[in-house]
Amino acid sequence: MTTDPTTPESVTTQRMPTDRPGIDRPILPGERLKAQRGLELRAKSWRTEGLLRMLENVLEVGEKPEELVVYAALGKAARDWDSYFKIRRALTGMDTDSTLMIQSGKPIGVFPTHSGAPRVLIANSNLVGRWATTEHFYELYDKNKIAWGGLTAGCWQYIGFQGVLQGTFETFAAASKVHFDQDDLKGRFVFTAGLGGMGSAQPLAIWMLGGVALVPEVNGERALERQAHGLVQHVTHDLDEAIALCTDARAKGEARSVTWVGNAVEALETLLERGIIPDIVTDMTSAHDALHGYQPLGLTTAQAAQMRSDDPDKLIGLARETMVRHVKALLNMEDAGAVAFDYGNNLRSQARDHGFPGGFRLKVFTEAYLRPLFSRGIGPFRWVALSGDSADIAYLDALTQELFPDDAPVQRWVRAARLHVPEQGLPARTAWLGHTQRTRMALAANAAVARGDIGPIAFTRDHLDAGSMAHPNIMTENLKDGTDAVSDWPLLNALLNTASGADLVAIHSGGGGYAGYMTSAGVTCIADGSEETAGRLERVMNADTGWGVLRYADAGYGEAEETKKREGLGLGF
Ligand code: NAD
């Protein structure tokens, strides 16, 4: 596992300073922007400098920086290059008591506010209910009137695959515990697919848990790139070889990860025909997007690209037909004894919209495994060393051990992450911390920044957190009180974090194939070591996780109700 070798330092260091991709001009295919390192400020404060580095970082680690795409085929950091450069200019020039407003990746205005207010407020891809359709989204997208920010792309909170790696690690660990009463995946065979920005975390997470992973990916170049980064061990074009590698490792109880370059559905149907049933089956192809993401059976990636421009409707129809077969194959696997779950990529909805609603028999991963954690405000928290110094992450890893010695899952994860997670972009760490834990962590880190032990740190999280997402087919499916689609919760979360003084707050809704499916909220705070920041960090961390606990308590989850009472959350009477 090495540092991301796709970051050609030579590109940024050997060119003239007026020709730096992503700084002086757009990034061209094959080029990378390297986020600023060091302690020198370009902006007027660490609060804006930190956010600028987070923006640069999502392009440094993103999938297609030349198109400003961070992940999931269309999730963008900014609307277009003109918007991107204007955001940079605004962040560097802004005073420390003003707020930059960004609408779907386009900066619109800077307003005088006050020093305790957020420096950046973002709304991405929000459409009025009846108009929140894929068709209307693309109509606006084609006119460059809207952009989709994914969850963490458009608000600069993505840190590469580590972000989803821990979620994947915890999800598979929980599934193994629930179904096999095992703490790891030793001797277990997991089938999933897709090595995209998110999906590429899967083979590593399964391998880290001691299991066997078969992860088909249609894009051969991408598969080799993932292999070069140490995310998957074996890449082969021969399906028989891939299956043999997996069954052999399962029989021996060895950890192994294998990618077959080909279509997930072909692999699943072949396994079924041969009666080879994995222990767990799921999927993380880009099924949310039938036009730009998911690849139909029978087409090469080049043929799909051609059809995308020549006959997009035909491509969408073919993709959805394959998705129906995909869902049916997962159901057949479940019938044959595999544990099958939906991994939040809208595959079941796409199949339903193409006339096959049966996929909803598959449980979504959040309901099946993660809800007890959300009820305690535990979720995908993360921090980023803005100076670029890996020693800061080592310091904070040690701090988690000191602050939470009895939290076994956190201890296990941090140890595993130190060993196996390669650095990608600015050094970062995810750790699923809960209510009060995040506050303690952020305050202790801020004090370390103040002492000069470490450089400034950005604290942020994925949107898939307790109080910050309404997504009836991923996050909030089948809630006890039926409030799956109520988006008041993430909207109020964003308002609360704004009132509490976060540095960046974002409200996102789905775009592309996700249009109309979700609303979520993101938050980032920069720990610059000041006392004023300590106050804001305490308020924001407590509010953000406290709101999550209250959301689940309100929906009727007993564990959340207990946490609420224990921590004195709620109305106070
Ligand atoms: P991505 O677009 O970066 O990658 C998807 C990959 O799937 C691509 O490499 C593509 O070539 C491959 N692919 C497409 N169709 C295929 C097929 N039929 N067979 C094999 N490979 C195929 O997307 P991503 O960022 O990895 O995200 C994957 C999905 O997961 C998206 O739908 C995303 O919205 C969803 N997601 C889930 C979570 C979660 O927590 N579970 C979080 C974020 C995103």
Automatic annotation (TrEMBL):
<keyword id="KW-0520">NAD</keyword>
<dbReference type="InterPro" id="IPR036190">
    <property type="entry name" value="Urocanase_sf"/>
</dbReference>
<keyword id="KW-0456">Lyase</keyword>
<feature type="compositionally biased region" description="Low complexity">
    <location>
        <begin position="1"/>
        <end position="13"/>
    </location>
</feature>
<dbReference type="Pfam" id="PF17392">
    <property type="entry name" value="Urocanase_C"/>
</dbReference>
<feature type="domain" description="Urocanase C-terminal">
    <location>
        <begin position="372"/>
        <end position="565"/>
    </location>
</feature>
<feature type="domain" description="Urocanase N-terminal">
    <location>
        <begin position="33"/>
        <end position="156"/>
    </location>
</feature>
<feature type="region of interest" description="Disordered">
    <location>
        <begin position="1"/>
        <end position="22"/>
    </location>
</feature>
<dbReference type="Pfam" id="PF01175">
    <property type="entry name" value="Urocanase"/>
</dbReference>
<dbReference type="InterPro" id="IPR038364">
    <property type="entry name" value="Urocanase_central_sf"/>
</dbReference>
<feature type="domain" description="Urocanase Rossmann-like">
    <location>
        <begin position="160"/>
        <end position="369"/>
    </location>
</feature>
<dbReference type="InterPro" id="IPR035400">
    <property type="entry name" value="Urocanase_N"/>
</dbReference>
<dbReference type="GO" id="GO:0006548">
    <property type="term" value="P:L-histidine catabolic process"/>
</dbReference>
<dbReference type="InterPro" id="IPR035401">
    <property type="entry name" value="Urocanase_C"/>
</dbReference>
<dbReference type="GO" id="GO:0016153">
    <property type="term" value="F:urocanate hydratase activity"/>
</dbReference>
<protein>
    <recommendedName>
        <fullName>Urocanate hydratase</fullName>
        <ecNumber>4.2.1.49</ecNumber>
    </recommendedName>
</protein>
<dbReference type="InterPro" id="IPR023637">
    <property type="entry name" value="Urocanase-like"/>
</dbReference>
<dbReference type="InterPro" id="IPR035085">
    <property type="entry name" value="Urocanase_Rossmann-like"/>
</dbReference>
<dbReference type="Pfam" id="PF17391">
    <property type="entry name" value="Urocanase_N"/>
</dbReference>
